[in-house]
Design a protein that fits this description.
alpha/beta; disordered N terminus; Rossmann fold; 19% strand; five-stranded parallel sheet; 455 residues; 2 domains; five-stranded mixed sheet
Length: 455
């Protein structure tokens, strides 16, 4: 039983380095923020889906790294929004914020956090002028649908004047860190590099934690609840996942017109059905029998820009750059969080723990690998040849590497074998529940070690 309580994302620095203590839920984005602090000339924009922890992370960063901190929620504070409507001049903006907030502003020691900045295009435009000012303004921003706003920006977006960072749900490594499993992470990484098997007992422990991650996903509040319940998954409040999905659907209606909101919701709710198909290429007809690309493409783009879903594109050549050979009409869609996919699919958590739902275990496994790879590569590709399909293609050190994903221990695969015969890659990767190994030029990676790829 864990006696210690954990807290989401607290910044601790010592000699310029982050110190991760037992009471910290560490996020990798913290390193990026500390790097930005060294040269903060350009405002920082943190993009991510709702409930991934953007506001908390930036608040803690501001509080612990700067003498003074001003938090502004542009969605709630109409009086502050009016300032940006009236002027884009940084000095005038700061002057009026001081009047409304009754604060003194020193640009050398004060940082401003503009939250929900997507509600004010003028505030986004103002970032250009803050960047160009001679004064050392320090500005960080975030917004739950910032990616959507950027894609549909009607004014002059400050290209080249902001540092853009992306926050995703916690990946498997961050989840292990939150559970205090730093030694296990070291062991996994060591055996990933050596290709030698870990002890069976350690392997089984890691697989058990992986199964629980499939159920929980990477939303910080859900993992926090798991920890608060002494890692007893039976006591987790899974309504938290339902609540997040409800908020996602509410956002679709809040920030779009009613017609587009309905189409967005239809696509999002159809993803479990899409993934469960044997050929799970995205089909608009699964969303709605009368659906056509021309009617639903903008809704799909909205969901992608919101970071609520991920797109895996079919590349027609296994050559670099993979993006140059994409077939725009064939692709797959994954949810950005495996726990939300489980919840949306209405799969009981015991079915995952006991391996009772083989079909959906495969769906969740593939979705999990897609999420882990996307956080590293920021793009996903799959490949078909003859009648065969390779789950993912990635580029490592200039080489195109095929990846095959298996949800269990049975790893025989005609597709990967045929790919190796035909293309003779430098090596291949097989991800499954089997232990580490390297045989027949295939690197065997347990599902819990995907975070090690391309380090």
């Amino acid at each position: 039983m864990y006696e210690k309580k954990y807290k989401i994302c607290t910044f601790c620095t010592k000699n310029g380095k982050i110190e991760v203590g037992d009471d910290i839920m560490y996020r990798k984005i913290e390193n990026d923020l500390l790097e930005w602090k060294k040269d903060f000339k350009m405002p920082l924009m943190l993009i991510g889906a709702r409930q991934t922890g953007k506001t908390y992370i930036l608040e803690e960063f501001c509080k612990t790294n700067f003498e003074n901190y001003i938090y502004i929620n542009l969605e709630k504070e109409e009086d502050i929004r009016e300032i940006f409507d009236a002027t884009l001049d940084p000095e005038k903006i700061i002057e009026k914020i001081q009047i409304l907030r009754k604060v003194n502003f020193n640009p050398d020691s004060t940082i401003i956090f503009l939250d929900e900045i997507q509600t004010s295009e003028r505030a986004i435009t103002s970032l250009k002028y803050f960047c160009e000012s001679n004064k050392p303004y320090k500005i960080v921003t975030a917004g739950s649908l910032l990616g959507v706003k950027i894609n549909r920006f009607k004014s002059s977006f400050p290209v080249g004047k902001v540092v853009t960072k992306y926050l995703f749900p916690m990946d498997f490594e961050e989840y292990l860190m939150a559970l205090g499993e730093d030694k296990l992470i070291e062991e996994i990484r060591k055996h990933y590099n050596s290709n030698e098997k870990v002890l069976d007992s350690i392997h089984e422990k890691a697989l058990d934690l992986y199964k629980k991650y499939l159920i929980l996903g990477g939303m910080p509040k859900v993992i926090e609840n798991f920890i608060e319940n002494d890692l007893n998954i039976a006591n987790v409040d899974f309504e938290l996942q339902d609540y997040i999905i409800t908020n996602y659907l509410a956002d679709m209606n809040k920030y779009t017109d009613n017609t587009e909101g309905i189409k967005n919701s239809k696509i999002y709710n159809a993803i479990p059905k899409e993934l469960a198909r044997e050929n799970n290429n995205f089909k608009y007809s699964i969303v709605d029998k009368d659906a056509r690309k021309i009617r639903y493409e903008s809704s799909l783009d909205w969901l992608l820009a919101s970071n609520m879903i991920l797109k895996c594109e079919l590349t027609e050549k296994n050559e670099s750059p993979l993006k140059a050979f994409v077939n725009n009409d064939k692709f797959k869609i994954y949810l950005s969080d495996t726990g939300l996919l489980r919840s949306l699919s209405n799969i009981d958590y015991t079915e995952i723990l006991l391996d009772k739902n083989e079909m959906y275990k495969g769906v969740l496994t593939e979705n999990y690998v897609a999420c882990e790879l996307y956080t590293k590569f920021r793009e996903l590709y799959y490949y078909t040849f003859s009648k065969y399909e390779i789950d993912f293609l990635i580029k490592i050190d200039g080489d195109i590497i095929p990846i095959e994903v298996k949800s269990g221990r049975r790893t025989n695969s005609k597709s990967l074998n045929e790919y190796i015969k035909k293309y003779n890659p430098k090596y291949s990767i097989r991800i499954s529940t089997k232990n580490f190994g390297f045989e027949n030029n295939i690197k065997s990676i347990p599902l819990y070690a995907v975070f090690c790829i391309n380090e």
